[in-house]
Amino acid sequence: MSTQPDLLYSEEEEALRAAVRDLLADHCDAPGVIARTESDAPHDLAAWKALADGMGLAGLLVPEAQGGQGATHREVAVVLEELGRAVAPVPYLTSAVVATEALLGCESDAGLLAELASGRKIGALAVALNVAPGGAYKAVRHEGGALHGELTGIADASAADVLLVPADDGGLYAVDADAVTVTPQPSLDLTRPVATVRLDGAPGRLLGDAESAVRRALRAGAGLLASEQLGLADWTLTETVRYLKDRKQFNRPVGGFQALKHRLAQLWLEVVNLRAAARNAADALATGEDVDVAVAVAQAYAAPVAVHAAEEALQLHGGLGMTWEHPVHLYLKRAKADSIAYGTAGAHREALAELVDLGAP
User: Fold this and answer.
1) pLDDT tier, 5 (very low <50, low <70, confident <90, very high otherwise)
2) How many whole angstroms separate alpha carbon 277 and alpha carbon 279?
3) Greatest CA separation for the chain
4) pTM higher than 0.85
């Protein structure tokens, strides 16, 4: 008998949110994030260390017996909301969620899982960021105990210590980053860079079956990405309302104009609905009930809302929003990049139609 999903935040989740928000206020202020995007080191490893080592958040999905915190996807979702609000350039989604879920799906390398859980190592699943759960992905050649090939669009590969690489023999292999060549690719989202990974006879350690592990990892990534998109949309809406209350035209606050009130009210409704969809996906992943449907619904809805919120923020901030110094461009770029991450909204709508038996005639 299925239980009713709980979309409300618990006291513990709200306390976790407050702690993460305080940490990010210290580490990920907007000028600092913008300055980092202009450097050759886009990832904020000090913030990552504070999250992973200081607060133990990299191991939320890992059982305590395997060196983790033994929490659920609900707590991870709260962390991702706050990371989305700060467009934090940390490999949390890619390492603490996607790579970790892939390892949990293999159940063969407790040592590596514990290292990811503690934050001592950063992991990245070597599957292109745009691949949807259940979608086709590229595998490298496994020959003579070594791996050969080139993979593109790998998110946060430049920060990874270990890559989880699918091979043509059906296995998922752990490959040390030192054994491969990682070349940055031009990336719209400057806070989550993608790269090409080249393997020329790289040694790999077999972890388990690639197909089931990758599917599990991408499903969790897609479902929890909605919480990041929620945080992003919530920040852009909040900041836009604040700006329009302060900005005056004709000696009155711009936010008092009826046309803008209507646009903000519409956006607020979209963000509230996104919160419900994102929380439902996190709760489904935590309980294991109707997961595929909940993830598809969340991702079908999340991308258009996050992009719309960021576009409205850019436009309603006027000339200020067009400047490099104002962080709203980071949110728009993240929203646009997220809109194709782990499958587009259209791909998730198609998947949803099949899941609920509403396929095209």
Assistant:
1) confident
2) 6
3) 75
4) yes
